[in-house]
Amino acid sequence: MKDENDYLTPVQVAVVIINTMLGAGILTLPRTTVNAAHTPDVWISIMLGGFIIILLGMVIVRLGLRYRGQTFYQYVSRITGRWIGAFLSAIVILYFMLVASYEVRALSEVTGLYLLEGTPSWAIIMPFLWVGGYLIRGGAGALARLCEVILPITGIIFFLTMFLSFGIFDIHNLRPVLGLGVTPVLKGIEPAILSFIGFETLLVLQAFMKTPEKAAKSVIVGTLIPTAFYVTTVVMVIGALTVDGVVTRTWPTMDLIRSFELSGLIFERFESFLLVIWIMQIYSTFTVTCYASALGIAQLTGRNLKSVINVLLPVIYVLSMAPHSLKELNKLGDVLGLTALCLFGLLPPLLLILSKWKAGKKDGIVS
Amino acid sequence: MGLYPNLKRVVVILWLLLLTGCWSSNEIEDLSVYVGIALDKGRETAEEQQLREQGATDESMDRVTATLQIISSKSSSSGDQSAKANQKPFMNTAGTGDSVFEIFREFASRRDLPVIGHHMKIVVISGGLARANRLDDLLDFFYRDNDIRPSCYVVVSRGEARKTLETKVPGSIPAFRLVGMMDNRNRTLEVIPAVSLSKLQGYLQSGTSFILQNVLSAQGEIKFSGAAVIKGKTKKLIGYLNEGELKGIVWLKGSGKGGLVKAYDRDSGRAMAYEIKSMKSTIKSRADGEKLSFDVNIESEGRLIELWNHANLFNRPSTKQLEAIFEQKVRLLIDQAIKKMQQQYRVDAADFGSHVRIEHPRLWQSVKKDWDSVFSQSPIHYKVQLKITEFGSLIN
């Protein structure tokens, strides 16, 4: 039987969702959104994107409520039948696996560029994988508690470093608001939504909730807080680097922090702070997705979670090394985002309808 | 596990080996930290010439000479006091080539300590070089490099850039002096807001014209004087603004933080000075169809800080008259600046374009391609209002 510690509270679920959303995207978001919109209005796109994500999340919550205590992998075959269910589960498992390897690779790219130049990427990635593997052996409870620890640290350091850049912030760079109408804003929504990928972990997490009804609240809080992070990022980055300056930088948020120095304080430069919290966020995103993937395999094949993890980590390592260049990595990120949108935007509503229809039919037979 | 009860312990102890050090660490004593760079038109230094004569091959076309200002770590370490006092805390060393990165790596074959750019504070580009080369080409390496931070400043020197990295003051580091001078904006209108690499990239990408601070040097002394005008379309230097014209632009933009206006009394011809306490300018763009015009309203408050007029104590000009004299002086500066921008260089060096971008975003889409020439045909109407609010410690 599960003991009290294996259940997740609604707050914990919200925190895990936040930590999963905040990941590689935070360093590239200003560029990807501005590239699509070409106006400074992308902060509106991000807010709209957050709103859409809340709606999508709600569908997953409703779906989960019909199958209390079950993960997606368990209930999907009850809706669609065994084989289609197994197929869909396999796709979701593969998706989580790829996200995990994408995050790991992004970590090695950025730390290799700014922090540990000269350290081979395997030496960065392997310890990272081991520590991640160690955490998820503890299960969802351990995962959630770790997320609870790192989220406040992330928040404080993030907003502090962002606001320290106020010296080079110029409000004129963000004007005019809606100068070219709403079309650019709409164009910016797509890349904005991609940064909110992470809400789909609810497919797994809701099963661990004692009160799954409250998952809706978790989704709302879990999306609004990343929205605040993202809007702050985009506003500060564009305010300092201008719309035209953002589009050419690979990691614009890093460049924002690298663009100022404060003399007189103990610290003059703050990029290492940003990198530290960013690495923590990558770590949490990695562990959550890796866990979601491992749990799926375990439930699908009926094997022990721990042994699945032992096999999964090397696979993720190999996958993370697959992209040959940063360009390919970015492409993988885009493809993953689009897959996620299609997969978790369309699949849950379909399943929900199907499940209701099935239930209705059953009721009809009974009555 | 039963077979090897101590295996866990052994593994844990082996883990400790991983904690022994940083993988890619470099001791600071083993590095040459450069803090400033001067880029000049390519001319081989004497050492380089001799090296080449002895057989060092170099097939580059000698476009750029980069002078690095390296902080010498040896000077700060032990040594007897007298020797230390005579020793300069920095060392300038130059290399020539057509790729900036190649020049930098060339130093690896010329000195034992590799150069690193984490602490680079300033790039000085010589005017001649900026006239002949696009700034985005010249600075490309600095933008790509992961050591050099985008917070590094960029200035132009009308003369030889390497001369601005020299000093006669023992113990001072010229690159730091240049950066420190940029903080003096509350004292003079001649220092314009510092342009960092990241700010510069915004300009270069958007294709607007802009100005960069100009540095002059003479015998180890340097001075910020006027500005270099970079044309947005070519991204090359097209000319300079002298100090008066630069002040005119500062007044137009209302960007000054402090400084003075000096004028002369019409009758006596003696000097008088107004110390700026505040400066504000509101620029409004007006679009009449395709025709653009600007209304600029400049307001300033300050104190009368010097007046050479004690001879005719009872016949002093009134405050109103003094204000009028100062206002006229400011108007003169502004007229000069507008004339230079609109008639001689035909570029918008005072960022009027961003007002159109913000106030008439749709019109901006059609004019931004050719903004500099649209700007030079747009009339600028301005009003200047100076207010003397106090007279210092003297009563009037």
From TrEMBL, chain A:
Chief place of localization: membrane
UniProt keyword terms in alphabetical order: Germination, Membrane, Transmembrane, Transmembrane helix, Transport
Lineage: superkingdom: Bacteria
Membrane spanning residue stretches: 7-30, 42-63, 83-100, 120-137, 149-169, 189-208, 220-243, 273-295, 307-323, 335-354
Localization of this protein: Membrane
InterPro entries attached to this UniProt entry: Spore_GerAB (IPR004761)
Listed Pfam families: Spore_permease (PF03845)
Membrane topology annotation: Multi-pass membrane protein
Recorded family membership: Belongs to the amino acid-polyamine-organocation (APC) superfamily. Spore germination protein (SGP) (TC 2.A.3.9) family.
Protein name: Spore germination protein
Native organism: Paenibacillus oenotherae
TrEMBL record, chain B:
InterPro entries xref list: GerAC_N, Spore_GerAC-like, Spore_GerAC-like_C, Spore_GerAC_C_sf
Signal peptide: none
Compartments where found: Membrane
All copies of domain Spore germination protein N-terminal, residue ranges: 25-212
Membrane topology: Lipid-anchor
Domain Spore germination GerAC-like C-terminal: 225-392
Keywords annotated in UniProt: Germination, Lipoprotein, Membrane, Palmitate, Signal
Location, primary (coarse class): membrane
PANTHER family: SPORE GERMINATION PROTEIN B3
Family recorded in the similarity comment: Belongs to the GerABKC lipoprotein family.
Record protein name field: Ger(X)C family spore germination protein
Source species: Paenibacillus oenotherae
